[in-house]
# Entry
Amino acid sequence: MKKNFLSTLKTPFFYYIESYGCHMNTSDTEIIISILSKNGFLLTNNLKKAHIILLNTCAIRKKAELSIEKRLDNLRYLKSNNQKIPLFGILGCLSKSEKYSNLIDFSIGPNSYRKIPDIIRLVMMNDEKKIKIHFYYLIIKMKHMKILVPIHNKKKITTFLSITRGCDNMCTFCIVPFTRGRERSSSPYSIIKECENLYEKGYKEVTLLGQNVDSYLWFGGGLKKKIKIDNSNEKIIDFSRLLDLLASKIPFMRIRFSTSNPHDMSDRVIEVISKHSNICKHIHLPVQSGSNKILKLMNRKYTIEKYLSLIQKIRSIVPECSISHDIITGFCNEEEEDHLETISLMNKVKYDYGYMFSYSPRPGTYAYKKLKDNVPENVKKRRLKEIIDLQRIHSIFRMKKYLGTIQEVLIEGKSKKNNQDWYGRNTQNIVVVFPKKLSKIGETVFVKITNCTSATLIGKIDDNENK
Ligand code: SF4
# Structure
């Protein structure tokens, strides 16, 4: 009788994982690690020791996709002579792609991570041929999702927690609604319980994640039995209420969130940020373009006038709040005057920092199918350079305002440049670097800012404030 392939392998099985893309993917990678650990698989950093190699991929930009293609080509040597091990698995948003089919043994989409151990075992047991499994839409129809909780093996101070998955917004350039599915919100009960657990384990900061946190909505009811809240008749919890509940229940934990959507952000959210000192004063508010014509083509559901009035509201209610952005330059039909409108918007807002990209059409999106990618590459490149240069000027302008001030900084780790320095972040999410003195990772210290670059504040611990 033919031997099962699985029985020929020595256990335990080691796996190696790499993560690409956004915070959501980083958080998903931690979830995947926790699911595999619970199922007896062991994480290794040694590629050659791994029975399973996993790449958690991102499809949001062509650049990310190209870097994964390149990485797979580099790893191809590990699977010479048609051997079965290591198994290659593509996870995340690129798992639908057929491009890598000669190397990949299985692919699993972002909605099916709970199935990873079963799928790996299934693939291992089959020694006849490779198995391709796309469990893409397995749990996509769930009205609310059960929270997937990472177990963190490494002692860390800050972490991420997804409160929603998927997105309903259908921005015409974006692949997320197709790869991650419709939007689902976790129950406030599981979010609060998990944040309390994280705090008890020693975490000092949690970032609540969602493609659009402002559209978080729970209408599952039954809360009053599980959480003691001020108003026991509450049946509907929106994002402002979730933030309010979390900040009151875990007053010594820092709370951040990302990403906000200008269309959905309510005044109540801004008021709650101002009310609680443990909610960090930073909002990532992608605008994508400064032109109403382009926003319409992108199916972004706000105008620049509304966006600016939101910024004004944030700054009047939470004056110390930092604001960052995402901008895509060179989208379909973007003319020079649209680009100048983006520049004008940036000059009005003077963002603290931002993420800027030139447009690359993503297969499957509305823009890919229906709009012409008609801005020449050299024009995209030039416009991108112009907005990056401008952002640098604005970042320096904002950073200089911190000179001479005292910043409350949560120490996260050793500075990459100097072993004798710590790095941490202030409430505005700005990195601060300073000599260690007697402080420890996880402590919050007061740092006097003496210098800055466009992305980092430099200072020293203020002994008077830290007494
Ligand atoms: S809000 Fe728009 S850009 Fe953001 S994930 Fe949803 S569809 Fe994509």
